[in-house]
Design brief:
Blueprint: H1 3-6, H2 36-54, H3 61-68, H4 72-75, H5 77-100, H6 102-117, H7 126-140, H8 144-154, H9 160-189, H10 191-212, H11 226-237, H12 240-268, H13 276-281, H14 286-294, H15 296-322, H16 328-356, H17 361-423
Amino acid sequence: MSPASTGASTGVDAAASPRAPESEPDSRLTPGGPGYRRMSLALFLAGVATFALLYSTQALLPLISGEFGVAASEASWTVAAATGGLALFVLPMSALSERFGRRTVMTASLAVAVTVGMLVPFAPSLGALVVLRAVQGAALAGLPASAQAYLAEEVRPKALVTAIGLFVAGNSVGGMSGRVITGWVAQEWGWRVSVGVIGALAVACAVAFRLLLPAPRHFTAGSLRPRVLLGTVRDHLSDPLLRRLYAIGALFMTVFGGVYTVIGYRLTAAPFGLPQGIVGSIFLVYLVGTVSASAAGRLVGRLGRRGALYLAGGTTAAGLLLSLTASLVLVLAGLVLITAGFFAGHAVASSAVSKTATHGRAQASALYQSAYYIGSSVGSTVGALAFHADGWAGTVGVGLLAVLGVVTITVLGSRAAHVAARREPVGAH
């Protein structure tokens, strides 16, 4: 039996059953059905905890630079180390989820991450802070790919884009709340207390997640043998569509990582000169990402996957250009467009990965997450270097190049699809 034929298996060989497969009802979760709301809320909270922890220092970089006497490019490593740790460990953690279960790995991942989160406020130096953040990112690696694999197995295909959109929406809420809270708390009590508060918030989300998430009913344990894992990875990387989706996720995140790593430096400096609390509140625009990610399913339904990616890329580029102005109102409008475009593009690409992979879904999602967070690390580092060299225009230039990459890859994908359609034999349908 081919991998494709087993991709949606519930762990029972239908051919061995005396009943016809059509006579058995689909027990996977669907909107309005039992367990769907609990599952959605649990993964929403997991997304909140993940992004709140992962980017807990991003809005605080000017304060961290001030305390340790370092430039933006050095302080940005507190973000790049976390996302880099996640990128490096997401594939091994996904393999563990194939063997021990999605819920088990996600629970352990959050438990370790929140424990490290409570140690971060006590970092005695920038080096120690970077190391703790790298460990925290590595711990969080068990969550994103496992969550998408859990959804692909437990949710009906027609509801998958919407379900993943809700998980991504949790990411946006976590990113927003983490930055807003840290901004205002840091203004009164400093950055160390701020990250401690985020750690406590993540603990609450982790406990609620474990209590709410329904036990998986369609998970089948896989193998931890390296040969099997490498074979699955090779299969995914040989798929042209998956490769394009991985690159798109990385490029979208390059834009987002660069913009939000540097924006605090821009807004606290002339001509804006905003206080830390107000700068943290700027991240309320993440609410736009919550809406755009949740609407990704409807967007794909109307425009198709490639049409939705074109729209997401165009919206992001328009926001980047608008942010070049010296008007605070227009800069904020630009951030709204960047955020909306990014979260829509990410939700579309990540859900397409889950639908495209017919086996080894955790590895397929892990490869996407690895590329995605490599993009974040590259964006935060290169965006900060560009800001140091050429100001905000340099960071915007990096973002526009990344968006151009998204559009180019999508165009190439469209051409490949047209060529494949023309080559398909007549009567194949």
